[in-house]
Structures are given as C-alpha cells and as structure tokens.
Specification:
alpha/beta, Rossmann fold, eight-stranded mixed sheet, 9 helices, 17% strand, globular
Length: 253
C-alpha cells in the first residue's frame, strides 16, 4: 500500500499499486465506493497490457484518511488527487474514473491537463441534479441535511442501497460522504459536461447498453468517444470485466 500527504492537516490518500511501465493508469472510484474492490480484476486482467496502475481512494473513502477540515467538494477532491499523483511521480496518466469519480476526474483534467493524457469516464456524472429523496439508481444522500444524515439518515440510505453498495459505503466518513454527495448534486461551474467538451486530450465515455448519456451526439461532436458496454449496469467494470478490459485495451497505450 502507498500513501501521500495531500492536505495541511496531514491527511493521507492511499492506494494499491500494481507494478508496470509508465505511462501509469489511475483508477478512481465512485460515491461510497473504494477503488481496489471495483477495479482489481480489470487492472490485472490478461486482456489489458500491463502498466503501472494506481487504485486510489479519495479522501473520506476506503483506506484514505477522513480529515474533518476537508471541504469534500468535487474541486477539493480533484486538488487532493492532483497532489497525490504529483507525489507518486505520475504524469500523462490514463485516468479511468467511475460515476462521481468521473466528475472529479473531469475537474482534475481541466485544471491539471499535464497529469492526464487519456480520460476514460465510466457512466460518470456530467450534470447537476436536484437532490430528490430517491433518484433512480442513486442513494438520495444529498436530500438530507448534514446533521440529519450523520445522526441517523445514513441508516435509511444503508437500507435503500443494499448490501453490495453498502459493503464499501460503510467505510466512508459520514460527513465526507454527505458533503461529496451534495457537491455532486450541485455540480461544478462550468458544469462537468462543459468542462469535458472543452478538454483536448483523448476522452471516452463508457455507458451500459441502453443507458447512453444525455446529449450523446453533442459529446461526440466535441470529440468524445461514446461507447456502449453490453451486459452491464452502472458498475460496468464489475458486471462485464472482460469486455471492459478489452475496451480499455483498445483505447489506451
């Protein structure tokens, strides 16, 4: 396990690293997740040529620290991730980022393009959304006030999301989880979609079959490859790891 101090409090981000040549691949998890359980099978898949691979956890999630002083916005996460990559000696990486992690990756690529040579978004959030109590397929975390969530709302979320998602969500700092969910619902300014279309590095958006992102044609017109992965849901890398790995092998050096 590797780590780097990324915050004035001394908080550390941690990651599991698979050895291999550069350029590195950096795998970023979604809301309430952690990278190793979601990506290990794909990162070590025989269909995917070996590269140095960092399966990294954002602050507040998984094996990384949970600083109370951290803002847990998408922008703050992107800044901490940039600091971790710098300290790991990573540049010109392929960033493979799922769901909420995709929103963080877009902000990072826009702010620090020298760190990101390829951007692969896995059913990532591109637009703000109203924090309705139970969004389709979502957790409803952003519909709670912070204290309401910390003092008991998390139990309702636990029961709603089910044992698979909760198996990693339970590792998250409750305040960090809530603040991240609120920031994701609020989105960025410019929006994640606007930032994505303005980027110049190769960009790909992977989505489940039948679940293309809104305005996929607009993304394609901006040079974003939009690809469907069959026999998968939101967690594409878990649902169809063979096709996911094969697709990455065609996209990345």
């Amino acid at each position: 396990m590797h780590d780097a101090i990324v915050h004035p409090s001394g908080a550390r981000m941690r990651w599991v690293e698979l050895p291999g040549p550069d350029p590195a691949r950096v795998y970023v998890h979604g809301l309430g997740a952690t990278s190793a359980p979601y990506y290990a099978e794909v990162a070590a898949h025989p269909l995917l040529p070996r590269r140095r691979s960092l399966l990294i956890d954002l602050l507040g999630f998984g094996i990384s620290d949970r600083p109370r002083e951290f803002a847990y916005t998408l922008e703050a996460h992107a800044g901490a991730l940039a600091a971790a990559l710098e300290k790991a000696g990573v540049a010109d990486a392929a960033l493979i980022a799922h769901s909420m992690g995709g929103a963080v990756a877009i902000v990072l690529a826009a702010r620090r393009p020298e760190l990101v040579a390829h951007l692969v978004l896995v059913d990532a959030n591109l637009d703000p959304y109203p924090p309705v109590p139970v969004p389709p397929g979502g957790s409803g975390i952003a519909s709670y006030g912070e204290e309401e969530f910390v003092e008991g709302g998390w139990k309702e979320v636990r029961d709603r999301v089910g044992p698979h998602w909760w198996s990693t969500m339970r590792l998250a700092d409750l305040r960090g989880l809530h603040r991240t969910a609120v920031s994701l619902a609020r989105g960025t300014d410019p929006t994640m979609r606007e930032l994505l279309v303005s980027l110049r590095m190769p960009r790909t958006y992977l989505h489940p079959e039948g679940g293309a992102p809104d305005d996929a044609d607009g993304l394609r017109a901006a040079g974003v490859r939009v690809l469907s992965v069959p026999e998968s849901g939101h967690n594409i890398m878990l649902d169809n790891p063979d096709t996911f790995a094969r697709t990455l092998a065609t996209l990345l050096p």
